Amino acid sequence: MNLKMKKDGKFEFLETGGSGEPLLLLHGLFGGLSNFGAQIEEFHSRFNVIVPTLPMMTLPLRKVSLAGLVDHLADFVKHKRLDNLHLMGNSLGGHVAILYAIDHPERIGSITLAGSSGLFESAMGNSFPPRGNYEFIKKKVESTFYDPATSTKELVDEVYNTVNDRSKGIRIVMTAKSAVRHNLAHKLHHIEAPTLLVWGKQDEITPPFVGEQFHELIKDSELHFIDRCAHAPMMERPKEFNRIMGNFLQQVAARQPSPA
Question: What are the transmembrane regions (predicted)?
């Protein structure tokens, strides 16, 4: 699909439109709207697929935190008047999705988490990424994927340019530290919605044991591992990821009561 970015007040997003229930896709710390091309193509005929930008680089510095992103998402959902939301989040996007779902269970139809942060993550670290070191950034981006070739030069350049912009780099570190501090182990039992967990078997950022911990702590959850796959299964194994998520969403729909 050839979708154009929409801007509505402080919100930027892609939206397929249509009469289906909203499927909201949330990107990670270094992610973007392009991460979900395969999911937009697969699900736009059944859902109104919406991909908002999480404003990590544009929030006022005093609001740069995980809580700031959750507040932004809450404002966006309220502004768009979305209900029976199907949330899907990768990495930090999963962390944001969980916190929003705990705060607003009445709006949630289902949750899908792919390599979510919130329990344990090993990413850039807690210090400022070394500026000007292209090879360091290249290796870090490649570590997101099982096959380093999945990491294109365009993707590496985008991350490199971000960390070499001092203002953006500071925001990246502040957001990452906020996520590490905000451990969810004591909150996950509050999740009421059916939850799908999709993990790459070779994920080094949120390793497979993290998916197992999420599964143990979220009562209505199912866990799937994808082999030859790391931290971004929706990008690296899109067909398998879409099949798993599609089956899950069908099961969720079947559990909903029929209209009177």
Answer: none
